[in-house]
Amino acid sequence: DQQVKQNSPSLSVQEGRISILNCDYTNSMFDYFLWYKKYPAEGPTFLISISSIKDKNEDGRFTVFLNKSAKHLSLHIVPSQPGDSAVYFCAAGGVSSGSARQLTFGSGTQLTVLP
Amino acid sequence: NAGVTQTPKFQVLKTGQSMTLQCAQDMNHNSMYWYRQDPGMGLRLIYYSASEGTTDKGEVPNGYNVSRLNKREFSLRLESAAPSQTSVYFCASKVAGSPYEQYFGPGTRLTVT
């Protein structure tokens, strides 16, 4: 049973337009959400995060929105650039106790930004 | 500052062979993690270590063992490799001062024939 779901395996957008990547979760205990970006043959790199006490967090071209009632978050990239082409993973934390702070990842969305 | 390093980068094993994947971090992080990435499955947690001397099972621990040798190093062992363990393996450590952010290594691509 996937607790974090990214239902779109792929997304293509034109350079300069907005990219919107979506993520849904089922466990209401999750209280922290992160987005990671992954290029081929590299490890995932942290992009942006949001705590459940907020509904929006912005960092440059990247904004994450959280809708707790819908158990949904989205990542907006404006404007999209060809270098943004990568796999984007949504991750959630908050259900584990202790200091290890485990994350649960979605299956990823391949974003392609067309020049 | 190398961050998180993993060796080897690539490995091909025959069914039944054993091997150890090495991971080291130089950021003085307490918690470390091993994940596997399979197509359409995202990253799944195999084992984790909250601190030196402790290890715990994640979502998919069967067929694997781990050792937290010291604060820097966290190794993953496959005692008898199976084709189902063909995957890309990532090691990560938790960033100090952040509630959940993890820093990932470059990965090991393992093929079991």
Shape of chain B: globular
Percentage of residues in DSSP E strands of chain B: over 45%
Gyration radius over CA of chain A: 14 Å
Q: Report the sheet with the most strands of chain B, covering strand number, pairing sense and barrel closure.
A: 7 strands, mixed
Order of helix and strand elements from N to C terminus of chain B? EEEEEEEEEEE
Task: Write down the oligomeric state.
Answer: heterodimer
Characteristic key phrases:
heterodimer; A: 115 residues; mainly beta; 5-stranded antiparallel beta sheet; 11 strands; B: mainly beta; 7-stranded mixed beta sheet; globular
Summarize the helices and strands and which ones pair or pack.
The complex is a heterodimer of chains A (115) and B (113).
Chain A: E1 4-5, E2 10-14, E3 19-25, E4 32-38, E5 45-51, E6 56-59, E7 62-67, E8 72-77, E9 86-93, E10 103-105, E11 109-114
Chain B: E1 4-7, E2 10-13, E3 19-25, E4 32-38, E5 42-49, E6 56-57, E7 64-68, E8 74-78, E9 87-94, E10 102-104, E11 108-112
Parallel strand pairs in B: 2-11
Antiparallel strand pairs in B: 1-3, 3-8, 4-5, 4-9, 5-6, 7-8, 9-10, 9-11
